[in-house]
Amino acid sequence: MRAVIFEGSGGPEVVKLREVPKPVPTREALRVKVHATALNRADLLQRQGEYHVPEGQSSIPGVEIAGTVEAWGEDVKGFTRGQRVFGVVEGGGLAEYCLLDQGMALPIPEGFDFAEAAATAESCLTANETLFTLGGLQRGQAVLIHAAASSIGTTMVQMARHVGATTYCTVGTWPKMEALRALGADAVFNYREQDFVHEVLRLTHGEGVPLVMDFIGGAWLERNLSVLGHEGCLVLVGLLDGMSTQVDLLRVVQRRLQVKGSSLRLRPMREKRQVNERFRQRWMEVLDRGELRPVIHARYPLEDVGAALAEMEANRNIGKLVLTVDADRP
Length: 330
What we know:
By secondary structure, the protein is α/β, with parallel strands linked by helices. The chain folds into two domains: 2-122 and 265-324, Medium-chain alcohol dehydrogenases, catalytic domain (Quinone Oxidoreductase, Chain A, domain 1, Alpha-Beta Complex), CATH 3.90.180; 124-261, NAD(P)-binding Rossmann-like Domain (Rossmann fold, 3-Layer(aba) Sandwich). The chain has helices at 41-48, 114-134, 151-162, 174-183, 196-203, 221-226, 249-255, 269-288, 305-313, and strands at residues 2-6, 15-19, 29-38, 64-72, 84-88, 97-101, 106-107, 142-145, 166-171, 187-190, 209-214, 228-236, 258-261, 296-301, 320-324. Helix 2 (114-134) packs across helix 3 (151-162) and helix 2 (114-134) crosses helix 8 (269-288). The longest helix is centred in the middle third of the chain and has 21 residues, at 114-134. The termini are close together. The model has no long low-confidence stretch (mean pLDDT 94). Keywords: NADP, Oxidoreductase.
């Protein structure tokens, strides 16, 4: 099969499409013929040498796929050959075939093509787990979502609106502001030109919000804590701007604030299956009804993975960058 390989670390020159052996299903895994996959920030960091693949996982990049079941291990039950499935994988997604744990495999929603299903997998699991399981977001509450034009951010906006929550968002360009407004965000701030702390406190009459979804970390952590209301919660979803900073702990103590972290790929498979099941129970019917759909920035053939990574590196994408795979190759 063909697969994307990073030969060393660095820029676009290390990205290669090579012939490698098909993966052999383990006892509880499906082998899926991949029809579409999607990029994540970790893929770019892996190319740059800044992300180390967890031990025992595939060095082939890509953590979400959609395709058809081709084979399975001896302990797999309930699947049929040719069945359309999608899900989060432990690497190996940027390839023509990939292993998918049976506990992570989901049926592709009615009316979704393979590209839409691939764009749904990781962003929906992460958004549900951080907004609701960790953040406890409820109807009538407000949430501040940073990097809101990302695939996870656009999914968070839709999920929050679906449950009747108010969404405040930050982005870095005016086109991204317009895209978030079109999704129904209640307020969108250009962090390059506006002070989001001032704006959030103004809109909440100084009370702040009960929940912040933070993809930035680093330099923004103290500012994020300052917009949290009493007993508010900040969930660290990403660390785009540094892994350490100084924090006013007195603020945390006085307001009884919570700071929580989230990572899916580093968790054991047992916990990943639980995350997947929570998403399945809450959102699969919503997806089937077409009430939640992924935002896709662009679709590229697998051969153009270098261009897709460059688009992500330039931070131009609004929503997901999807790679389609030639389904007719044997």
